[in-house]
Design brief:
disordered N terminus, alpha/beta
């Protein structure tokens, strides 16, 4: 089964989705999802303005609108957070590594898990979408509504920055990486987690007839200014922004460790439903994807592996 769904991020988005909540003072992800694009925040007064977060629109990412996306972000974080946390710890994240700035925190699915794992870490969760970030309220992090390319934070004020499933949604990822470098103190660390559509999902049995359908997901994201192949450029993007000691760590999530049903938010037909409504995917294509997913989940020998990539770097000393 060829898989190439939209994430987030996050994811995301890295990496979120939201029902509107009044945000608190500077308050603020498919998983996951990053909403940090400077281009996305300007000129939004018109009725034709696009999503706040670049190519990421939490209300049009999966079946069920905002409610469905909130659930998807939680499921995404639950699948891979353990593997991601191990890489972050290896990169130097501990209770003394802060202040920690999470750009594109979205609904707080990962924020809450980070708070539980590192309760003593000074943590600021940033997102350009204040309604979305309001869902992270009460997690113990400071919430900040801001564009990731124009952070209201002093120079050299952070010890560690995380962007999880953010860059894939941005027309200008270098602007956000440069801003992260500005707020990092010398020797501070950055971690950037992403996917690459060419190798995001591996599954058996495979269904080649789904390749064109899933390709429409990546095409839709590209037409909105995103890039689901950004994973292959993470190290070059970090070096180009001025980071040192750049390294890349892949991580895998499989149904050896999670039930097949846990992968439904990624592999199931729900990700196609907004594209059906938009006329990008036909009802026949949607029915085909649903049938193949049902076959896959019923196969006792089915295997799925989702691959992510985390690039790390250091602010020059």
């Amino acid at each position: 089964m060829t898989t190439s769904p939209l994430t987030s991020f996050p994811a995301p988005a890295p990496s979120g989705a939201v029902a509107p909540v009044a945000p608190a003072a500077p308050v603020a992800p498919a998983d996951g999802a990053g909403r940090a694009d400077r281009a996305g925040r300007a000129d939004r007064a018109g009725a034709d303005a696009g999503p706040v977060g670049g190519s990421y629109d939490p209300a049009a990412t999966t079946a069920g609108g905002l409610t469905g996306e909130l659930a998807r972000l939680e499921a995404q974080a639950e699948l891979s957070f353990g593997a991601e946390l191990r890489i972050l710890r290896e990169a130097g994240l501990d209770a003394h590594a802060g202040p920690f700035v999470e750009i594109g925190a979205g609904s707080g699915a990962v924020t809450r898990r980070l708070r539980a794992a590192l309760p003593g870490l000074a943590h600021t969760a940033v997102d350009i979408d204040g309604d979305l970030l309001a869902h992270a309220a009460g997690c113990g992090a400071e919430l900040l509504v801001a564009d990731g390319a124009a952070l209201p934070l002093p120079d050299d004020s952070a010890g560690f920055v995380l962007l999880r499933y953010v860059l894939q949604h941005l027309a200008d990822p270098q602007a956000v990486l440069a801003e992260a470098l500005r707020v990092l103190r010398p020797g501070g660390r950055i971690a950037v987690t992403e996917v690459d559509a060419s190798c995001w999902g591996l599954a058996e049995p495979s269904y080649p007839e789904l390749a064109v359908i899933h390709g429409k997901l990546a095409q839709a994201q590209a037409s909105a200014g995103g890039d689901r192949t950004v994973g292959r450029r993470l190290t070059r993007l970090l070096r180009g922004a001025g980071y040192e000691d750049v390294a890349l760590r892949p991580f895998a999530t499989t149904n050896d460790d999670h039930p097949v049903e846990a992968f439904a938010p990624h592999l199931g037909p729900g990700r196609l439903q907004p594209l059906v409504a938009a006329g990008v995917v036909s009802l026949g294509e949607f029915a085909l994807a649903a049938d193949r997913w049902n076959r896959f989940r019923a196969d006792p020998d089915a295997y799925v592996m989702l691959l992510g990539f985390t690039a790390t770097g250091t602010a020059p000393r």
